[in-house]
Amino acid sequence: MIAFTYTGRLTAAELGPALNGRLPPDVAIRDVRRARPGFNPRRAARYREYRYTVWNGPRSPLRERNALGVRAPLDVVAMARAGQALEGRHDFSAFAVATDRDPVRTVHAVRVRKQGSFVTIDVRASSFLRGMVRRIAAVLIEVGRGKMNESEIREALAARQPARNGATAPAKGLCLRRVVLGRRTETTDDADGDD
Asked: What are the backbone dihedrals phi and psi of residue 47, each rounded to the nearest 5 degrees, phi first?
């Protein structure tokens, strides 16, 4: 979601296709709407939801364009249980790429699911630190491989040092799925998205 000032002659219905005609093939405008003056999408979001996708099957160049390929079997139940340790209001310094003046964030839900050979990690929060979802994905994948457990995630949160030496999952599996606008129940989370 973006907001911009437009003083041209095209209507909102005409502007979307016109912009799409100028954008690279991997970016698209889905909808254009008029916003009230001073609207700031970053501050208007009640929550955001990112999805990190893992292809947990045999090598597949097509599927691995937008998903991280992991050959070792993943324990999705352990990943889901460990993800719950991240829910709530915490200092997420251990899961940030850079220091932030206020690293406290509220994570509403972490859901790990498997459908066929796809494993998805959905993280919903009021706001995110830079790199936060990719670092969460990296440690949950380590849990799935049996190289880390739920208590180590809790320890990483408390230690506020980079979890797993700053392990970060590649960007290709990350996708912003949803931004829900509306009044927030808390106002301290004011930063926006992951990467």
From this structure: -155, 165
